[in-house]
Amino acid sequence: MNDLNLEIEKKDNQIIELQKEIERLNNIEELYANLKLHIQISDGLLDSVPDGVIGLNEKGLIVIFNKKAEDLFGYSKSEMLGNRLDFLLPDNSYQNHSGNVSNFFKNPQSRQMGKSNNEFVGKRKDGSHFPILIGLNYYKSEVGMIALSSIKDISEIQASRDEISKLLFAIEQSPVSVVITNASGNIEYVNPKFSDLTGYSIREVIGQNPRVLKSGEKSDEDYKELWSNITKGGSWKGEFHNRKKNGELYWEAATISAVKNIHDEIISFIAVKEDITDKKKIEEEVKILMEELIAKNKLIEETNIKLEASIKEKDKFFSIIAHDLKSPISGFLGLSEVMSNNSYDMTIDEMREYSKLMFASAESLYKLLENLLTWSVLKRGLVSFSQDKTDLNQIVENNLHLIASRANLKEISLINNCSNEINVFSDASMLNGIFRNLISNSVKFTIRGGKITVDAKVIDGMVQISIQDTGIGMPKEMLPKLFLIGEKTSRKGTENESSTGLGLMLCKEYIEKHNGTIWAESEEGKGTTFYFTMPIYKQ
Questions:
Q1: Which pLDDT score, from 0 to 100, does residue 31 have?
Q2: What is the DSSP letter of 343?
Q3: Residue 90 CB-density burial (10 A; 0-12 exposed, 13-18 middle, 19+ buried)
């Protein structure tokens, strides 16, 4: 009996083990089914992407090849999985690309589609070549890193580019002027004939309104009628008597038409203009022609004088923009790019440090723009100028107080030796600007622990003011250039402080408005003294 019970118990245990094994197999089957479903969903998502997607493992073998990639290259997924990319690239480029793949896995970096350096040539199964645009990305899987390429056929885009190139070539070779503006009437493009005719370079007129050529002979009502016609989507034909850059007048027959987009909205205007000056001259009487030529020559002489002065001022602006403005903007862009690309990996202290650097770049940029604006307003004669009795000592005290915090950071002593009894006849706002710029300049170029002294004395009916520092000084050859337009004299301060390049120019303008003069004496390593004169206030 006992043997029978043991036998039954043994059979029961076997049945239980068998049931567990069946259950385990069922679980494996369910996991397999789920995995298969997951793969199908992933393949479906990849096949729904509008661009070709190709994935390479670290051995350079294709492990992903979606439906769009099949359409682009003519190979099926089964043909490409496990193969290398040499099937898809021209022979002369595959060797370089193979090295690029190896380098990518060593230093993986995403590359956005749409940049010109991401354009390549693909090779179809039938051997034909076609232009492609490639974007790169990567992800780390359980079996290693996968490099993903998104691929777009840009054959149509390339064909459009070729057509545009042909049209552009035809326009640039055209014997008539072509001007294209935006919907607001500001110039976006001119062809070489326009520059040859008017004397204005492309750079000078981009963003300008064509009224820069306006001679003033056509009435405002005529221009209103023209604008009314073309803004309604129509065309305008007529003649202009315009002015070239050198002041010379010329006649042109013009046709101006609106350009609309697919939504019937005006996006630009195109003007095609033919120089008809010679034709008009033939039609005019000799007497009238001579009178106009005499008047024109006089106008050209006057205009040339103004243009020469204007060009010098513009050269100064362009010089500052090209050098001083570029540095803080480049710094700001570089710092912001680092923060943008690495923000998830940066510590709070690193972000705080970068933020401080960005603030310093922005502050430098703001100071430069502020001086540029002041300079611009001053040169256009828009600054008010009102002289009155001004307490010199009080002006100096106020400005030393304003700059004290910056001086304290460098442990620089500020000393005012101006007498309480000296009054100057000045515009207080301009005088404040002079002291603020000159004292700030001295702080910038004075080493830590140095001294700045402000003094004044009456000489020949004028008050001579001096601002002396114990700073780094400057080379002798720099002194004559300090106040000249177009000369590059800005430098970094003793603790890398930036310079706007306009402070001394503004001081010179302000002082000369008071019929005063400004000059400097300096020696490298022994400091600098700036002198300027102001009219004394007379009872």
A1: 45
A2: T
A3: middle
